[in-house]
Specification:
- The chain has about 350 residues and is α+β, with helices and mostly antiparallel strands.
- It has 2 domains: about 5-150, no CATH class; about 185-345, Heat Shock Protein 90 (2-Layer Sandwich), CATH 3.30.565.
- Helix content is about 60%, strand content about 15%.
- A hairpin with a 2-residue loop joins strand 4 and strand 5 (about 285-295).
- Helix 2 packs across helix 4 (about 115-185), helix 4 (about 115-185) runs antiparallel to helix 5 and helix 7 runs antiparallel to helix 8.
- The protein is rod-shaped and about 110 Å long.
- Keywords: Kinase, Membrane, Transferase, Transmembrane, Transmembrane helix.
Length: about 350
């Protein structure tokens, strides 16, 4: 809802509230003798004056003095305004209705004093000031909250975009390293890898711009990537994966699992030892369980390929995109690095 629509709704609410306030005394007194005169005398004239005090504060005094911390000037301005309108209320009644506030009379103990009338009028004319402060403060708080949420949303979107721009080059560089390793040993495989990489990059460039993508597409992307990586390794590395055939598709954030998969290939393969990597995904209604089990071969500090930037980005994206809707656990058990990720879509 834009700013102009909010203004129209607030204006409509103001009109409706004042309409009800002005009509209620008339409806309650209908059918009685001299009803219109009584309503005009006791309700409509004071309500009209109340509305002026309310909007003087609402549009001018609260913003200029109260919100600017000039509280003394705010109090003085309202005292002057209330005094003026009490006098105006009394003058209108005296001129048009021949009503006079009684003077103090010591001989009449049962007649209300003039000071009581002034005191009650002062209380009544202070009510719209209090209401205007309440309404204006509430509107200001709502506006502040909306602006704060917009700022958080903009910050979130910029962070996610930044993480995505980090992820794509990171993925691309890893794939180029794979192709480089195949150029001399297996030129035909290198050609096939380049073709597979083009498909993967097409997905990265054209299908991951949306906030969420089809889980089927994401699974196909993962399978293509795993098959691409398998070309790089010898028979000493056992790579298995098990992904479900979806009957009903789900929507997920794009490129969320790829960091975990890259991490498994980085730290789960040894050039001299038997290696094993197992990927598994299960679906239960809107719950996705993804697990990876791989041998744990930690990288040395001098090996920059083990810097873990992809895994760090994945954790940040989970925190930003699935707050309170994900569980992530990672542990080394009997020489295997085991990762479990659960998402509620």
């Amino acid at each position: 809802m834009n700013f102009k629509q909010n203004k129209l709704i607030i204006g409509f609410l103001h009109i409706m509230i004042w309409f009800v306030l002005f009509m209620l005394p008339y409806l309650l007194s209908s059918g009685q003798n001299q009803a219109i005169k009584a309503v005009l005398f006791f309700s409509w004239i004071p309500l009209f004056l109340y509305s002026i005090i309310f909007y003087c504060n609402y549009f001018v005094l609260i913003e200029r003095f109260l919100f600017s911390k000039k509280i003394i000037w705010f109090v003085i301005a309202n005292l002057i305004l209330i005094t003026l309108f009490i006098w105006a209320n009394q003058s209108i009644k005296e001129i048009f209705f021949d009503f006079h506030v009684p003077h103090n009379d010591k001989n009449d103990d049962f007649r209300p004093s003039r000071s009581l009338f002034i005191y009650s009028d002062f209380i009544l004319f202070s009510v719209p000031v209090v209401f205007s402060i309440a309404v204006k403060t509430t509107e200001r708080w709502i506006k502040t909250e909306v602006e704060r949420k917009e700022a958080v949303t903009i910050k979130l979107e910029s962070e996610l975009q930044h993480l995505k721009y980090q992820l794509q080059p990171h993925f691309f560089f890893n794939s180029l390293n794979n192709i480089y390793s195949l150029v001399d040993t297996s030129p035909e495989q290198a050609k096939q890898t380049i073709h597979s990489l083009s498909k993967l990059m097409r997905y990265l460039l054209y299908q991951t711009n949306d906030e969420k993508v089809s889980l089927k597409s994401e699974i196909q992307f993962i399978v293509n990537y795993i098959e691409l990586m398998k070309l790089r390794f010898t028979e000493n590395t056992k790579i298995e994966y098990d992904f479900p055939v979806l009957k009903t598709d789900l929507q997920v954030v794009p490129l969320l699992f790829i960091s975990l998969i890259e991490n498994a290939f980085k730290h789960g393969v040894s050039a001299s030892q038997q290696s094993e990597i197992i990927f598994k995904m299960t679906i239960d209604e809107n719950r996705i369980d993804f697990s990876i089990k791989n041998h744990n071969f930690p990288k040395t500090e001098s090996d920059k390929s083990g810097s873990g930037i992809g895994l760090q980005n994945m954790k940040k994206r989970l925190k930003l995109l699935y707050p309170d809707k994900h569980e992530f656990n990672a542990a080394v058990v009997d020489g295997f690095f085991i990762v479990n990720l659960t998402l509620e879509t």
